[in-house]
Amino acid sequence: MGRYLAIFLTFARACLVRDMTFRANFILESVTSLGWMSMNLAFYMLVFQFTPEIGKGTGWTREPFFAFVATGLIINSIVQAFFMPSAEELTEMVRTGGLDAVLVQPLDAQFLLSMHRVDYSSLANGAVGVGLLAWALARMGHAPPPVAWLLYPLLLLCGVAILYALVIVLAAATIHMGRNQSLYDFWFYMTNFSRYPAEIYAGPWGGPIRALFTFVLPILLVVNVPARVIARPLAGGAWWPVAGVVAAALAALVVSRVVFQRSLAKYRSASS
Amino acid sequence: MHNSGPSSVAAPVIEVAGLAKEYRVYDKPEGLWASVRGLLHRTSRVVEALRGVNLTVGRGEFVALLGPNGAGKTTFLKLLSGIITPSRGTARVLGHVPWERADDFRRRFALVMGQRNQLWWDLPAAESFRLHKEIYRLDAARFERTRDELVDLLGVKKLVLQPVRELSLGERMKLELVAALLHEPEVLFLDEPTIGLDVVAQHTIHEFLRHVQAERRTTVILTTHYMKDVAALCERVVVITHGDIVHDGPLAEIVDRFTTHKIVTLDLDDPSATARIERCGFPCEVRGPRVVLRIDRQRIADVLPEILRSDGVRDVSVEDVPLEEIVAELFRSGAPERRAVVETAR
After folding, report:
1. For the segment B16-36, what is each residue's pLDDT rounded down to a tens digit?
2. Longest dimension (CA), chain A
3. What is the CATH number of domain B260-320?
4. CB B72 within 8 A of CB B243
């Protein structure tokens, strides 16, 4: 474990050195990312000028909703910073045969392929997310209970784990397909559903979507459960979503591991 | 021909039996309509890249793996290094099945591919070396000692702190070799390491590999299209064509076995001597005052004194046929009809 941490830190350090080498690119990426996030926040502010809550009777009033958005920002920035760049690069490595060099190294290939790039500019969104969360919680007028503070980091990690598993499965598909340039787009479309409170998925169309993204592809749990725990403390006894997200994270990690290993066994390399 | 090789060594480092690799490749017909139809129905073929190869390599051997493009050389190296899994057959390298990818196995070999960059592109090679130290769990003192030794041998001390993308191809390849050898592998797979390099860089790499291999008794398998690499480095040559091994033996044996004649070059003082020499009846090429003859090896001892007695001959040299020519002939003599291609449709 210590060795893997040392290797990850070496990767992280090398990426930092590279980002510092191309400073203008780093700054531009950070500004673009922050700009996109600011536009989203402005849009939500605009919505709350016309309605007191997202969905009548859902309880997602302005401050809790911004705590929800902040939770999503934190989770997404972690995935975007630590896993997504490597997964995107994997598609190119499969196409060009660059994966060969990874497979001969005495190290877990999934670790090496999913964590060798760090995109520091994506962490800017996470930092804003932390600030936004603090602001929202301060404005709510009641502090979350201690158990919520204890559970929140764990549930954030579970959310990250579910998204990580999704990234890994999509990356594994690349190995079969030889080329998968839509990996990032597909990930974006899927995770779009996780960016809103689960309560909005109601009615004849919303119900099936909610069931699909809760029980089959549990991305609705990713942000909803930690956000609910921190912003709208769960009623006594209603802990099943917490247990559910932990179980979903573990299951997602196991499934993604199996899929990835099987895909690697099918790797056929590229002509030299 | 399947060959277990001449090297019936006590402790083989590489043992391969009946190793075969097949690929399914999809045909992409020309034209828009054909592409649309291809979305629903594609035809595919099974191509046999390697056809039941047998090979044994002992510790410390330096083996050249020769063959034309597409012969299966790189596929063979990829199987031996565990990058891909075979369709049939068995292989053991250092006692391990390569495609099981055991860490203990992967710590003991290295693969260098001349056409692919394995160093961090935007960073100095020193950063890649540092990463290598962590991945291979190298002791700090051992790492520094080995790195400095390799860097000195290749004369690249000034380059290790320069971003890799700013280096020339030759400089990059030298640093690739340093990275590959930092963990002192027992087996080294080299896939065209001198491709595109100038003669000076080629020579430096030859000297380096010879030194390292002799010092460490590393087992080396080298694929190359440059016969200079083979002549400079390899005692044993394995020729592979169309997925089969068609020759396995010492380099000198190839020359003996596959050449029927020698090249005799005559420098003439008197241009009129050309006509006399042409009348000898051997294949003959006239290049100004120089005549190049191809004379049967069996007859050279009889013919040469006769030619030397001719008036007007100032100088003479007798050489073997160039290795490139011999190997090209060997490639052509492979058995293309054995390359089975199975047509299927899906």
Report:
1. 999 999 988 777 777 777 777
2. 63
3. 3.30.70.270
4. yes
Q: Work out the pLDDT band at A234, boundaries 50, 70, 90.
A: low
Nearest by CB to residue B85, choosing from A265, A271, A272, is: A265
Q: Which of B83, B134, B163 sits opposite A100 (nearest CB)?
A: B83
B interface with A, Cβ–Cβ below 8 Å = 23, 74, 78, 81-85, 101, 103-107, 109-111, 113, 115-116, 118, 120, 122-123, 127, 130-131, 134-137, 163, 191-192
Q: Do A106 and B134 touch (CB under 8 A)?
A: no
Read off the pLDDT band of A72 (50, 70, 90). very high
Cβ–Cβ contacts within 10 Å for residue A220, how many?
24
Q: Taken in order B107, B108, B113, B117, is the CA torsion positive or negative? A: positive
Residue with tokens 């409170």: A197
pLDDT at A199 over 60: yes
- Those residues with Cβ within 8 angstroms of residue B138's Cβ, 6 or more apart along the chain or in another chain: B132, B146, B182, B183
Q: Do the Cβ atoms of A272 and B23 come within 8 Å?
A: no
Query: Quick one: pLDDT at residue B30?
Result: 75
CB contact set of A191 (below 8 Å; sequence gap of 6+): A76, A163, A166, A219, A222
Which of B173, B160, B231, B237 has its CA nearest to residue B205? B173
Mutate to test the interface with B, among A3, A5, A19, A100 (most CBs of B within 10 A): A100
Assess contact for B128 and B120: CB atoms under 8 A: yes
* pLDDT confidence tier of residue A236, bands split at 50, 70 and 90: low
Yes or no: say if A219 and A162 are a contact pair by the CB < 8 Å rule: yes
Residue of B85, B106, B192 with shortest CB distance to A106: B106
Q: Please say if the pLDDT value at position B345 is more than 60.
A: no
Closest Cα in chain B to A22: B122
pLDDT of residue B76: 95
The pLDDT value given to residue B270: 74
Q: Is the ipTM of this complex over 0.90?
A: no
Per the CB < 8 Å rule, is A6 touching B123? no
B10 confidence band (pLDDT: 50, 70, 90): low
3-state DSSP call for residue B326? helix
Option in A7, A96, A100 nearest B134 (CB): A7
Q: Which of A7, A17, A101 sits opposite B116 (nearest CB)?
A: A101
- Using the beta-carbon criterion (under 8 Å), do B134 and A97 form an inter-chain contact? no
Report whether pLDDT(B256) > 90: no
Of the given ranges (A148-162, B29-43, B110-124, B318-332), which has the lowest mean pLDDT?
Answer: B29-43
For chain B, the domains span 260-320
Q: CA-nearest residue of chain A to B176?
A: A101
Quote the pLDDT of residue A110. Answer: 92
Model confidence at B272, in pLDDT bands (50, 70, 90)? confident
For residues B169 and B165, what is the distance between their CA atoms, to the nearest angstrom? 10
* Interface A-B: count of C-beta contacts within 8 A: 72
- Residue of B21, B65, B78 to mutate when probing chain A, most A C-beta within 10 A: B78
A100 to B113: CB separation less than 8 angstroms, yes or no: yes
d(CA A151, CA B169): 53
